[in-house]
Specification:
With about 350 residues, this protein is α/β, with parallel strands linked by helices. The protein is about 35% helix and about 25% strand. Bound molecules: flavin-adenine dinucleotide (FAD). Flavin-adenine dinucleotide binds next to helix 2, strand 12, strand 16 and helix 10.
């Protein structure tokens, strides 16, 4: 069979574009959106390897959050107080950008607040001891009063964060793709990029496309395409069958945010636990780790005390991109080729803002 391209394909489909975005997750699709809004006359193509986005954006937990106290304390140790303050600000303003761009309805946004649960007395004492300081800092930083508050939930000592919420990640991404399509952006699905040079990308199927500018928005998969210090990190999530009388309603996290759960109607969505097998989870291969699965199931039974005979309805994994200091990387990797990666598990909060920064630099 002669598969060479047709005249019509060459003239109408495969003409050099102004911008090619590789990756149809929240960052890539938002880059296309903001770029097209700024330059309506430009021709923009998104190349996505999956038939749906296939990374983290449709595989996450859907928390819109600025972070828990124990997460901030761990991050201050890893970096500095100033870095953590800047990050909280970035997360908060990123969430405002997400809401104003999409509208709360498209996100199915729920302003639930979030509970950090403590099963460890020492971490609890240290976290409670920082509430006053963090609240004063957040008043300065965000203009928000009394963000964190000591409380309990189902008898478990907790800190409530009144700014946290939940969204429907699948709907966000579906509507975002509809929005860019409406602006004339062409998304070519099932199009995996194998290599790139300035102004040119090669697909795995042998095709080549040209563009004036290229953005690599492939987060946890970026090291396959170029040399950036972003490591893949796999995250496991499962959702239960409906649990009548489910007591855990809202968003919850535990142990520096490593374990997180929320209700989706009467179902419980539970994920994380990467801390149990960090080395093994430094991978860009989808899959399930029995050690983590067992840990999460034990957590659901012993700590959350779910009623007997609850069942997992669906389980999946997603791939994050982590940097050493959890700061995202936005950089020109070759003339006319930019990469945006290393969202470090915070992409709902910071994804659109990272995209906006990319478009400003293009
Ligand atoms: C289990 C889990 C839970 C999470 N929970 C939350 C949460 O509650 N709150 C929060 O803020 N963040 C959360 N995150 C993080 C958030 O989902 C990510 O930070 C965000 O989705 C990253 O968006 P992205 O567009 O940079 O990357 P991705 O969504 O991974 O998009 C990259 C896209 O590039 C495509 N791609 C890769 N390589 C190629 C190639 N060579 N050619 C073409 N296409 C390619 C992929 O298929 C993918 O669709 C979670 C992540 C995971 C995995």
């Amino acid at each position: 069979m002669n598969k060479s391209i047709s005249y019509w394909e060459r003239e109408e489909w495969l003409q050099p574009a102004d911008l090619i975005v590789v990756g149809g997750g929240i960052v890539g699709t938002s880059v296309a959106l903001f770029y097209k809004e700024k330059h309506p006359e430009k021709d923009v193509i998104i190349l996505e390897r999956g038939v749906t986005p296939l990374g983290a954006s449709t595989r996450n937990a859907g928390f819109s959050c600025i972070g828990s106290i124990s997460e901030h304390l761990a991050d201050i140790k890893l970096t500095s107080l100033e870095t953590v303050k800047t990050r909280i600000h970035r997360r908060w303003s990123g969430l405002q950008l997400l809401k104003s761009t999409m509208g709360e309805e498209a996100l199915e946004y729920q302003s639930t607040g979030g509970y950090e649960l403590f099963f460890d007395e020492d971490l609890y004492d240290r976290s409670i001891g920082e509430i006053e300081f963090l609240n004063a800092s957040l008043l300065d930083l965000l203009g928000e009063e009394n963000v964190y508050e000591e409380t309990d939930y189902e008898g478990v000592p907790a800190v409530f964060n009144r700014l946290d919420g939940a969204i429907n990640s699948g709907k966000l991404m579906r509507i975002l793709h509809q929005r860019v399509a409406g602006l004339g952006v062409r998304t070519l699905w099932n199009s995996e990029v194998d290599a790139f040079q300035s102004n040119r990308v090669e697909l795995k199927n042998g095709m080549e496309l040209q563009a004036e500018k290229i953005v690599l928005a492939v987060n946890g998969f970026v090291s396959k395409l170029c040399d950036l210090d972003v490591k893949p990190a796999r995250g496991l999530v499962f959702i239960t069958q409906p649990i009548p009388g489910l007591k855990w309603r809202g968003t919850f996290n535990f142990n520096e945010g490593y374990v997180y759960f929320r209700n989706v109607g009467d179902r419980l969505l539970l994920g994380g636990g990467r801390n149990v097998a960090k080395e093994e989870e430094t991978t860009d291969q989808f899959g399930s780790n029995p050690k983590i699965r067992e840990y999460l199931i034990r957590f659901a039974n012993e700590q959350l005390k779910l009623p007997e005979r609850w069942e997992i309805e669906l389980e999946w994994s997603g791939i994050m991109g982590m940097t050493a200091d959890k700061e995202p990387v936005i950089t020109e990797v070759e003339p006319n080729v930019w990469a945006a990666a290393g969202l470090s598990g915070m992409g709902i909060a910071i994804g659109m803002q990272v995209a906006k920064e990319v478009v400003e630099r293009l």
